[in-house]
């Protein structure tokens, strides 16, 4: 399969530090197991993106962590601020480097099918922005064909209002938006089993 070109995929990824990642899983998993789960999820997301797209960058919270050395991909520091400010910064870097468009991903949907990513890239041909809604009120991806940093302004991150508030910003600007089907993130222990049922394989 030929890789998609003309779009930079940026994966926002935390280092798998015990006690600092996937803490909502620790009702059923130890902190070390939760960190291992995060590492497995991130690995799946990164390798999938690298298989499908020709231009993939990892935006890491700690570029010195050895986990990121295992991938033969460009590595950038996420920067400071809330999630929206960090995503805006990464998009700004990409467009400054003349990326045709940008697709930002997190690492909480290892079960995401290839088709979802390809649909997002394809939808950018007719829309300014593409969002992948998830059941908790957020989204698992955001793609844009020009820098639209203001869509992240005033969003209450880690709340159930993320998607709605982002859509309000988009509507205010008059940009054309496409919404993919609603997916889900792996945030709680039951989500791990659900992701496995969707085909994700975790050792």
UniProtKB/TrEMBL annotation:
It comes from the Bacteria. Pfam families: DUF2064. InterPro entries: Nucleotide-diphossugar_trans, Trfase_1_rSAM/seldom-assoc. PANTHER family: GLYCOSYLTRANSFERASE, SLL1095 PROTEIN. This is Glycosyltransferase. It comes from Mariprofundus ferrooxydans PV-1. The lineage of its organism: Bacteria, Pseudomonadati, Pseudomonadota, Candidatius Mariprofundia, Mariprofundales.
């Amino acid at each position: 399969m030929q890789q998609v070109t003309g779009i930079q995929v940026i994966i926002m990824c935390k280092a798998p530090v015990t006690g600092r990642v996937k803490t909502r899983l620790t009702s059923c998993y130890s902190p070390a197991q939760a960190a291992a789960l995060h590492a497995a999820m991130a690995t799946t997301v990164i390798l999938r993106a690298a298989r499908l797209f020709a231009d993939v960058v990892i935006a890491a919270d700690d570029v010195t962590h050895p986990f990121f050395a295992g991938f033969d991909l460009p590595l950038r520091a996420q920067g400071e601020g809330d999630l929206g400010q960090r995503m805006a910064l990464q998009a700004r870097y990409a467009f400054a480097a003349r990326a045709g468009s940008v697709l930002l991903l997190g690492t909480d949907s290892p079960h995401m099918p290839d088709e979802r990513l390809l649909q997002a890239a394809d939808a950018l041909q007719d829309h300014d922005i593409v969002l992948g809604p998830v059941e908790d009120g957020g989204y698992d991806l955001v793609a844009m064909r020009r820098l639209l940093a203001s869509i992240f302004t005033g969003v209450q991150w880690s709340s159930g209002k993320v998607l709605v508030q982002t859509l309000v910003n988009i509507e205010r600007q008059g940009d054309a938006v496409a919404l993919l089907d609603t997916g889900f993130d792996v945030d709680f222990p039951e989500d791990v089993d659900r992701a496995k049922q969707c085909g994700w394989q975790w050792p």
